[in-house]
Amino acid sequence: MASLAALLATLLRAGPAEPGPLPVDTYQVVHQHPHDPAAFTQGLFFLDGQLYEGTGLHGRSSIRRVALETGAVAQQHDLPSEYFGEGLTAWGQHLIQLTWQSQVAFVFNRTTFALEKQFSYAGEGWGLTQDGHSLIMSDGTDELRFLDPATFAERRRLKVTALGSPVSRLNELEYVEGEILSNVWQTDFVARISPKTGQVLGWIDLHGLLTPEERAHTDVLNGIAYDPVGHRLFVTGKLWPKLFEIRRAHREQKKGRRTQGPRGGKVTLKSDALGQLASEKSAPR
């Protein structure tokens, strides 16, 4: 994994974008819901009226079914302590969860949470979603893997770029209306990625969801879920006390000031985003 210093150096070297910066949306909070502040969120999705969450850290990793309105855990299965849970998604009547460095994915019964089988893969596991045809997996690099849901065999890889430069640290994923949304680790930005070309179509800037006092006791933004029936988008973070339903909103660009996403090669960052990266503690994945 590239060091934070290397990432900052790349950002600081960035010049003005040509032919123009990528669009950056902001957000409106529609609702906020309680979220378990002890949950180190690594995977999140919404299906059939239910919120599912995968958590990480050794000895604290789990899969959960969570009541959206109250944040209460309705059902939970804990992973053995040697595993660090990562991305989570559903396929048919199964839940599939990655692990960080154990190179194994677990397949659970979606109703009972009973472990049914497991797959192996090379490298690290970070985020996981699906597009109705393939599982889509991130591994902390600038590539997304498309996998056969039945065998976990790799079908293809997709390099993710913004204005021609690679975008790495792709984290939790969610497939939303033909786009792949991805948290970018240690930033408050979400990338909107084309599943055909790998190009970043734009960014969603989620700075300010928590107050500075709340954020002082939390880890990074991570966790995107989408309700395709109600067209609701949810976001949260690791150890966050709240989960937010948000609506994307167009940002009016101020004259003389350009605001771009966190890692787009020739894309520049506003100063407060650089400050966030510079001060971010080196937390566990």
Description:
A hairpin with a 4-residue loop joins β17 and β18 (189-193). Helix content is 8%, strand content 45%. The protein has a single domain (24-273), classed as Neuraminidase, CATH 2.120.10.30. It is built from 3 helices and 22 strands. The strands form 5 sheets. An 8-stranded mixed β-sheet has the order 16-17-18-19-1-22-21-20, with no helix packed on it. It has a 4-stranded antiparallel β-sheet with strand order 2-3-4-5, with no helix packed on it. It has a 4-stranded antiparallel β-sheet with strand order 6-7-8-9, with no helix packed on it. The radius of gyration is 18 Å and the shape is globular. Residues 1-19, 255-259 and 264-282 have low confidence and may be disordered. The chain is mostly beta strands. The protein has helices at residues 4-13, 212-215, 271-279; strands at 24-34, 41-47, 50-55, 62-66, 73-78, 85-91, 94-99, 104-109, 115-120, 128-130, 135-138, 143-147, 154-159, 161-162, 165-166, 170-176, 179-184, 189-193, 200-205, 221-227, 232-237, 242-250. The N and C termini lie close together (11 Å).
